[in-house]
Amino acid sequence: MKKKIGLLGATGSIGTSALDVLRNNPESFELVAFSFYSNIELAKKIIEEFQPVVVGVRTKAMVQELSLLYPQIKFQAGMEGLVAVATAKAADIVLTALTGSVGLLPTMAAIESGKDIALANKETLVMAGQWVMQAAKEKGVKILPVDSEHSAIFQVLQSQDNKNVKELIITASGGSFRDLTREKLKQVTLEDALKHPNWSMGKKITIDSSTMVNKGLEVIEAHWLFDASYDKIKVVLHRESTVHSMIKLVDGAYFAQLGPRDMREPIQYALTFPKRTLLKNEKDFDIADVSTLHFDKLDEERFPMLTLAFVVGGKGGSFPTVFNAANEVAVNAFIDGKIKYLEIEELIKRAVSKHQEEINLTLEMVIEIDKKTRQKVYKWIEELKSI
Amino acid sequence: MKKKIGLLGATGSIGTSALDVLRNNPESFELVAFSFYSNIELAKKIIEEFQPVVVGVRTKAMVQELSLLYPQIKFQAGMEGLVAVATAKAADIVLTALTGSVGLLPTMAAIESGKDIALANKETLVMAGQWVMQAAKEKGVKILPVDSEHSAIFQVLQSQDNKNVKELIITASGGSFRDLTREKLKQVTLEDALKHPNWSMGKKITIDSSTMVNKGLEVIEAHWLFDASYDKIKVVLHRESTVHSMIKLVDGAYFAQLGPRDMREPIQYALTFPKRTLLKNEKDFDIADVSTLHFDKLDEERFPMLTLAFVVGGKGGSFPTVFNAANEVAVNAFIDGKIKYLEIEELIKRAVSKHQEEINLTLEMVIEIDKKTRQKVYKWIEELKSI
C-alpha cells in the first residue's frame, strides 16, 4: 500500500526535494495534500503532476483563482489552509517543510489527528518542544527528523541502547562567514550572507547558518528529539558538511553518518522509516574521492549565538521561544535591508536578556510570548532605524 | 554471571590488550584458559593474576617447569595445548589472538565444542573460511570480529538490513611504505618495514601492512564474516586510521565507525556482544581535535598484493590458502634476513600462479595444500639464497 503524504511547504527547498523523492517512488508514495506560499506557477505544476485532494494557499484570492482551474480540489487559505493540509484525512504522514514558527500550529494539528511527522521545521521544537513531544507521545505518533544533522544522528542511534550514548555531535559547516573575524562581520552585506559554502537553501536558513543561530536551533531540536541533556550535545566545526553528524558511545567508538549533500536522503529515510530504500538518481559520491575532511573546535567568542542557544536551551521554558522569535524578526529585517548584520545578534541578545519567565507556562502562553517578543523586536528595529 | 574466556595468544599485542579489558572488568569476565608462545615471564604474571585452569605452552619443558610452580593448573604443550585452551570446559567464548595459520585447528576445535569465537586471527578465515563458517552455522556459535576494521563494519551493520548494504569499505593506513614508490621499495630494510605509522603491532602484521597483504587478508576475511561478494568490498586509503571502516547503503548514506586507535574497544565489544559497555581508562579522543582526515584511492600498481588478494578471493577454494601460506613463509624469511623485501611479493605471486586447484576440496585437503605451499616456498627461498 502506498504511504499517503501531506506536504507543508511544497515549493521551498525541502519541499521540492521531497517532491523529487515522491516522483522517483510512485509505487511507494502518494501526495494527498500540500501547501505553498507564493509560487503559484510551481503549485499548478505540482497539482497537475500529483493530483492532490487538498491544497493550502496563502490568500483567498489564490483560492478563487485555483478553484476555477481545479474544481475537484479543495483549496483553503492562510493558517486554515495549513491546518487542512496537516489534518487531511487520507494522509498517513505529514512532512512539515515550512520555515519559521508558522510551522507550530499545523504540526500540532497533524499530531492531534494522529499523523506521523517528518519534521523539517526546527522552529516547532525550539518554540514548543515540551508540548510537541508530549502530544506526540500521547497520540503515539512518530516525530521523524529531516534535517540532515538530526537524520544522521537518528540513523546511527537506531542500533544503540540510549544508555550507551555519551555524546551527540552535530557538525557545523560554519556558514558563509566562518573564516571572517568578528571585526570583519561589521561590513558584511546580505549578498555575502546568502553565499553558503556547501548547501543551497532558503534565505532565512542560509543567514541563520552564518550567525550559527541555525546550529543553536539544531542543538535545541536535538535536545527534544533525542531526549538528550544539553551537556551531552556537542557541536564541531566541519567545513565540508560531508559527515552529517555523529554519536559517541561509552566505549569511545564514534558512529558517523556521511555522504553527499543531498536532502533527498534524509527526506526519503523519514518517509520510509523504519525501512531504508534505494535512492534513485543518487548523486555520485565516493569516499575515496573526498580527499580531506576537516574537524575543528568552535570558537565560542566568534560564534556567540551558539553559546547563547545552549544557555536558553538550558534555561528551558519559553527562553528558546524568545531566542527564536527575536531571530526570525531580526533576520527578516536584515533581509529587508532594515538592519545591519551584527544587529541580528544584538537584537537576539537583548530579547533574551530582557525576558522574564512566566510561571506555570502553557503552550498558549508560549505562543503569546512568541508574539510579544516579535512586537518588541519590531519596535527595537524601528528605534534603530530612527537613530 | 561472569563470561568465561579462553584466550589463545595471551602474551602478544592483542592478547595483552585483551587482558587489560578483563582486568578492567573483573565483574564481567573471568579468564579460565590461555596459551602463550615464548614469553614465560609474562605468562607467570598472567597465571598469578588471573588464576586460570588450563594453560597452553610451547614446549614440554615449559610444561614441566610451570607444573612445578603451579601444580593446581593443567599445562599442555604445542597444538595439543592450543586445543586444550580452545575447548576448556568452563569457557563460553574463545578469543583467538594467534598469529598465522596455526590459529585454524584450535578455532575449529573451539567451534566444535560450542564456544563463541572472538576472532583476531584473520588467517583462519582466509585459509578455510568456507569450513569455519559452515561449522559455526551448524553449531550455532557466533564468529565475532576483533580486527578494528571488521569490528567497525560489524558494529555499523547491526542496525542494517543486509539487502540495504551496497558496499563494505575497509580503510587502509597504507603501512610503513605508503609514500614510497615501487622503485624505492627495492632498498627497504626490515627495520624500515617495522615502523608502522599508526599502530604498534607484532612484526608479521606490521610487515603485512606494508605489503598490503594484510589488507588483502582482511578483504577475504570480510567476505566470509559478512557473507559479502567481492565486488561489494572496497578498500580506501585513509592514512590516519581514525575511521576504522565504513559501509555504504542503498540510499547513498555511509555509516562509519571511528575513534582512537585502541584495540581494547573492538576486543571488549566482541566479548560483551550484543551489549556495549563502558571502556575503562579509555584513550583521550575528541573528534574536534582530529583536525584532518584523508581519504584516497589505492593505486593498484603500487599495491599489487591487494589486487592479487581480490583475485585469489574471487577464485576461492584453496587459492586464498596458497596466498596466505606463501606470505607467511616469505615474511618469516624476510624477518630472518633471508630474502629482500620485494621478494615477499615475488614468492606470493609465484605460489599463486603455479597453484592448480584440486577438485572436491575438503578441509583436510586445504590443510595439506597449505603445508605443501610452505614447503615449496621454503625451497624457492633456499634457491634464491644460493644464487
Tell me what you see in this structure.
Two copies of one chain form a homodimer. Chain A is of the alpha/beta class and 387 residues long. Chain A has two domains: 3-146, Rossmann fold, CATH 3.40.50; 150-261 and 283-386, Orthogonal Bundle (Rna Polymerase Sigma Factor, Chain: A). Helices cover 49% and strands 16% of the residues of chain A. The first copy, chain A, is built from 17 helices and twelve strands. Chain A has helices at residues 13-24, 40-50, 60-69, 78-86, 104-112, 122-139, 148-157, 182-185, 190-193, 203-211, 213-225, 264-272, 287-290, 304-315, 319-335, 341-354, 363-386, and strands at residues 3-8, 29-35, 54-57, 74-77, 93-96, 116-119, 143-145, 165-172, 233-237, 243-249, 254-258, 292-294. Chain A has a seven-stranded parallel sheet with strand order 4-3-2-1-5-6-7, sandwiched between helices. In chain A, strand 2, helix 2 and strand 3 (54-57) form a beta-alpha-beta unit. In chain A, helix 4 (78-86) runs parallel beside helix 5 and helix 5 (104-112) runs parallel beside helix 6 (122-139). Chain A is globular and about 55 Å long. At the A-B interface, strand 9, strand 10, strand 11, helix 12 and helix 13 of A face strand 9, strand 10, strand 11, helix 12 and helix 13 of B. Strand 12 (292-294) of chain A pairs antiparallel with strand 12 of chain B.
